[in-house]
């Protein structure tokens, strides 16, 4: 998918030593060693990220862009270096294509409120998929309400959780103005063929937005190879701090878009009754940004590249293959999502046990899972369930943890069968 | 660890969650209220037949975890035949029970099995959701109530 050089394949054991970089992993919960399997919700932070935040606040803290003094220069340089780091992380053509946001949700809302308000009119269609997170549904519903545009959904096939690409010819047609879809499903673990989907859209002049919340920290990402117009990510899902994320936008698109929030930093000049906007990306960053967050995000990206993103992807593949294999041996376990070629996320239900009960008991064994609708209520409806339990992995997780998790599931089964 | 789990999932709770009592719509109902837990999408609908001030009959339907299902089931048994004032007083006590584990000396009967919930803050909402719906129905409100 990308031109990234494939780093030498090392056994997963080599990644296990990285656990020492994550102090939070080294604790007991309810008397058992913590097994943190809620990485799709948020990942843990390595010492390098904590150190970057600490250094910034200890030595360089100042406001950006407006100062003349030394600390402000340092803060501005670090903040803009973080933008360049993010551009490089995504292989964007230029730093001007990176807008810092609070996360994926804000990035999508930005596009809906600027590009969407300017471009959509009654009768236009927005194509989404049935596996979208609420944050890639609700902003478009609001836009549809404002403009009279219509939402259309590309179906998911069923429990195996693939996009029904056979329906694409019929649904991705002129009249669709935007095709927005997730790269990796946070519930099903499906990895969608994003480059192919963008290419199909581009042939019809349809604008594309990729939700990379679940992929940015797990797969090598190259926006030029993907060929999308917009891509959204969250720092906290890739070892970075909460409160920071990014919108990648093709420069021509960003330049053609009106601003969203108004305030300081986003203007070139302000008069009593009108203002001129700053250039992109600053036009979309009103007010004092999350400077520390951006610096922490850059440190996280450095960290992931040092580990090797292809290596992380490889570890994900191995761990989830092992998990799927072990889980499919548990009687009464219903597994959602593709059997092969999936990301490190597994959703399941165990007999008649409700996901909340399962997660409560797992927590008593030190295993952190998530239970609920995972902000995927339309998908749950499609699958005919109210909720699922979910385990999601990262490179610091081990096969031994997966084995222990499966053993705990068997305990849970016994517990509720008593 | 397993002690706390056994406190939370007492046999009575597991039994009621597997075979909930009064689990059906109520043809004679003159009050209904819905409870919804936005965290998990679970929902419960309470059906009440009020005769003046008295809960003459009561039933529920919906989907939920063991705690919320058992809570709704035991609630229907506990509230049947009670007056509005008694129901409200009982709600206050069960609320105290699931948040603090204390019963203030009152004999709550079967409802006492929910004492273990207070050690699981994330699950308090599950236990209390059907009660919110029941109180809304008793008060004559019929719009959905939520745990938030
Ligand atoms: C696929 C997907 N999209 C979007 C989001 C929203 O991310 P955030 O809450 O960081 O804005 C998430 C996070 O749960 C996600 O998994």
What best-fitting shape of chain A do the alpha-carbon axes yield? globular
Low-confidence stretches of chain A: 1-11
The general outline of chain B is: globular
Secondary structure tally, helices of chain B: 5
Going by CATH, what is the homologous superfamily of the largest domain in chain A? Type I PLP-dependent aspartate aminotransferase-like (Major domain)
Bound molecules: pyridoxal-5'-phosphate
Count of individual domains of chain A: 2
Number of strand elements of chain A: 17
Uncertain segments of chain B of ≥5 residues (pLDDT<50)?
none
Which fold name corresponds to the CATH topology of chain B?
Sufe protein. Chain: A
What's the pLDDT, averaged over the residues of chain A? 95
The whole-angstrom Rg of chain A is: 22 Å
Please, could you describe this protein's structure?
- The complex is a heterodimer of chains A (418) and B (148).
- By secondary structure, chain A is an alpha/beta fold.
- Chain A has 2 domains: 13-37 and 308-417, Aspartate Aminotransferase, domain 1 (Alpha-Beta Complex), CATH 3.90.1150.10; 50-306, Aspartate Aminotransferase, domain 2 (3-Layer(aba) Sandwich), CATH 3.40.640.10.
- Chain A has helices at residues 13-16, 47-60, 70-90, 104-119, 138-147, 168-171, 194-203, 223-226, 251-256, 291-307, 309-327, 355-364, 377-383, 399-417; strands spanning 28-29, 32-33, 35-36, 98-101, 125-129, 150-154, 176-182, 207-211, 230-234, 245-249, 267-270, 275-277, 333-336, 345-350, 367-368, 370-372, 388-392.
- In chain A, the strands form 5 sheets. Chain A has a 7-stranded mixed sheet with strand order 4-10-9-8-7-5-6, sandwiched between helices.
- Mean pLDDT of chain A is 95; it is low at 1-11.
- Chain B is an alpha+beta fold and 148 residues long.
- Chain B has one domain (2-140): Sufe protein. Chain: A (Alpha-Beta Complex).
- Chain B is built from 5 helices and 4 strands.
- Chain B has a 4-stranded mixed sheet with strand order 3-2-1-4, with helices on one face.
- In chain B, a hairpin with a 2-residue loop joins β2 and β3 (54-63).
- In chain B, α2 (11-18) crosses α3 (66-79), α3 packs parallel to α5 and α4 runs antiparallel to α5.
- Bound molecules: pyridoxal-5'-phosphate.
- Pyridoxal-5'-phosphate (PLP) is lined by residues 40, 103-105, 133, 135-136, 182, 186, 211, 213-214, 234, 375 of chain A.
């Amino acid at each position: 998918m990308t031109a990234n050089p494939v780093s030498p394949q090392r056994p997963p054991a080599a990644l296990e030593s990285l656990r020492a970089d994550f102090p939070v992993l080294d604790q007991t919960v309810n008397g058992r060693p913590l097994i943190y399997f809620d990485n799709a919700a948020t990942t843990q932070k390595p010492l390098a990220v904590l150190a970057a935040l600490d250094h910034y606040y200890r030595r360089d803290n100042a406001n950006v862009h407006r100062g003349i003094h030394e600390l402000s220069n340092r803060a501005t340089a670090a903040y803009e270096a973080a933008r360049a780091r993010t551009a490089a992380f995504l292989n964007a053509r230029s730093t001007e294509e990176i807008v810092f946001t609070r996360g994926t949700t804000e990035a999508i809302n930005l596009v809906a409120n600027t590009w969407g308000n300017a471009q959509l009119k009654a009768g236009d269609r927005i194509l989404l998929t049935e596996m979208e997170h609420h944050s890639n549904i609700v902003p478009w519903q609001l836009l549809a309400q404002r403009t009279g545009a219509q939402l259309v959904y590309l179906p998911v096939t069923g429990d195996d959780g693939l996009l029904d690409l056979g329906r694409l010819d019929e649904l991705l047609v002129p009249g669709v103005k935007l095709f927005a879809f997730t790269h990796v499903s946070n519930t099903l673990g499906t990895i969608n063929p994003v480059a192919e989907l963008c290419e199909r859209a581009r042939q019809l002049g349809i604008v594309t937005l990729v939700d990379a919340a679940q992929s940015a920290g797990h797969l090598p990402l190259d926006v030029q190879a993907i060929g999308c117009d917009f891509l959204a990510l969250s720092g906290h899902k890739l070892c970075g701090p909460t409160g920071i994320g990014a919108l990648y936008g093709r420069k021509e698109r960003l330049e053609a878009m009106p601003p969203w929030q108004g305030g300081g930093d986003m203007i070139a000049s302000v008069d009593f009754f009108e203002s001129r906007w700053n250039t992109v990306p600053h036009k979309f960053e009103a007010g004092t940004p999350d400077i520390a967050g951006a610096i922490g995000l850059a440190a996280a990206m450095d960290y992931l590249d040092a580990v090797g993103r292809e290596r992380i992807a490889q570890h994900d593949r191995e761990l989830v293959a092992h998990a799927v294999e072990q889980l499919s041996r548990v009687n009464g376990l219903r597994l959602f999502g593709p059997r092969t070629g999936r990301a490190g996320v597994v959703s399941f239900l165990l007999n008649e046990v409700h996901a909340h009960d399962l997660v409560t008991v797992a927590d008593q064994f030190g295993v952190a899972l998530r239970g609920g609708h995972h902000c995927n209520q339309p998908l749950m409806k499609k699958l005919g369930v109210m909720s699922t339990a979910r385990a999601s992995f990262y490179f610091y997780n081990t096969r031994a943890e997966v084995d222990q998790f499966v053993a705990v599931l068997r305990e849970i089964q016994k517990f509720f069968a008593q | 660890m397993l002690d706390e789990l056994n406190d939370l999932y007492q046999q009575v709770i597991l039994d009621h969650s597997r075979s909930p009592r009064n689990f059906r719509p109520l043809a004679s109902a003159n009050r209904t209220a819905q409870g919804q837990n936005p965290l998990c999408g679970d929902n419960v609908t309470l059906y009440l037949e009020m005769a003046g001030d008295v809960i003459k009959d009561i039933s529920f339907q919906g989907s939920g975890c063991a705690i919320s299902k058992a809570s709704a089931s035991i609630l229907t048994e506990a509230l049947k035949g009670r007056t509005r004032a008694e129901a409200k007083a009982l709600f206050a006590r069960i609320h105290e029970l699931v948040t603090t584990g204390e019963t203030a000396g009152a004999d709550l009967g079967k409802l006492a099995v929910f004492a273990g919930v207070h050690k699981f803050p994330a699950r308090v909402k599950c236990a209390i959701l059907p009660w919110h719906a029941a109180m809304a129905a008793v008060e004559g409100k019929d719009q959905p109530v939520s745990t938030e």
